[in-house]
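Thread amino acids onto this structure.
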């Protein structure tokens, strides 16, 4: 039996914690900042200083705060030790903090007259590092800046940490904040989706743990569509994970999709056409959460027992999927 998911939690526009996400049907909030969009799915119930206190949060960016908060929601349900690891995905960290730090170096009297307290949060590994420091998790700590592939990448990386004995359990997930900077970056990329923010994590452990498993990770497959055929590459990934698991396409009961619009959405539908499975799209509830899309797909799939697939397609040409056996 492969690695298993034994617990999960999430922070999103639905609220804080797994119960809020399970409940959630929400509407996007209107924006009053200088963003190009008129609305976004904001995690309004997560107020950093109310959730984490004032100590250590004065310069903390929202991405790191979301990571610290969601890991804090998860840990009471699991057992941790000195080898418990953290693997978090991101697009590039907090783009808002990175922009502000860079701007200060260009506009202040001297380039080095920047706020030193914000420096740690301008790094892309800030979220994973802060989550581990805050919660005293001393095992392997990894950030995977994989964009929309992050959800698959963290599960694969976490499984390898377990297989090699480097971790006894791994907090796997991803985080994406909403900010005007991110909104403008997406706008100039040509995206028209309603953005969201949030963080979702699962606890990955070897099979045979004391806690009853929620799902088994049967396999992860990724490819690069070097010829531009994203549909063909994704279909090949799907065939690979099914073959390794000894399953057929008709055995899949639920699919969580990731692409929301345009050519990637068309490619995703084409690749999944032979599946007779129910289709769920977390973005309908939480918006476009970028790198955090994958973990939200996984936790959404945990609602429906049976074989389940979560897909991932990134505009850079990488595609992939994960096959789960949901047990409860």
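Threaded sequence (328 positions):
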């Amino acid at each position: 039996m492969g690695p298993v998911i034994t617990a999960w939690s999430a922070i999103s526009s639905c609220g804080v914690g797994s119960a809020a996400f399970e409940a959630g049907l929400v509407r996007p909030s209107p924006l009053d900042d200088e963003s190009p969009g008129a609305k976004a799915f904001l995690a309004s119930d997560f107020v950093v200083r109310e959730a984490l206190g004032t100590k250590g949060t004065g310069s903390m960016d929202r991405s790191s705060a979301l990571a610290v908060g969601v890991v804090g929601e998860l840990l009471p349900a699991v057992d941790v030790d000195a080898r418990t690891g953290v693997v978090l995905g991101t697009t590039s960290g907090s783009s808002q903090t990175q922009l502000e730090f860079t701007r200060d170096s260009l506009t202040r009297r001297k380039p080095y007259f920047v706020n030193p307290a914000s420096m740690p949060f301008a790094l892309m590994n800030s979220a994973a590092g802060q989550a581990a420091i805050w919660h005293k998790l001393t095992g392997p700590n990894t950030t995977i800046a994989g964009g929309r592939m992050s959800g698959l990448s963290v599960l694969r990386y976490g499984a390898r940490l377990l297989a090699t004995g480097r971790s006894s359990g791994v907090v796997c997930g991803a985080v994406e904040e909403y900010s005007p900077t991110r909104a403008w970056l997406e706008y100039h990329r040509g995206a028209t989706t309603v953005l969201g923010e949030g963080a979702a994590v699962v606890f990955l452990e070897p099979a045979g743990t004391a806690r009853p498993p929620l799902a088994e990770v049967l396999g992860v497959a990724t490819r690069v569509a070097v010829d531009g055929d994203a549909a063909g590459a994704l279909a090949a990934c799907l065939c690979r994970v099914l073959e390794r698991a000894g399953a057929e396409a008709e055995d899949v009961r639920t699919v969580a999709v990731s692409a929301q619009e345009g050519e990637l959405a068309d490619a995703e539908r084409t690749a999944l056409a032979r599946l007779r499975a129910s289709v769920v799209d977390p973005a309908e509830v939480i918006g476009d959460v970028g790198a955090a899309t994958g973990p939200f797909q996984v936790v959404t799939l945990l609602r429906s027992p049976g074989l389940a697939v979560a897909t991932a397609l990134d505009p850079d040409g990488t595609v992939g999927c994960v096959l789960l056996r949901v047990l409860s």
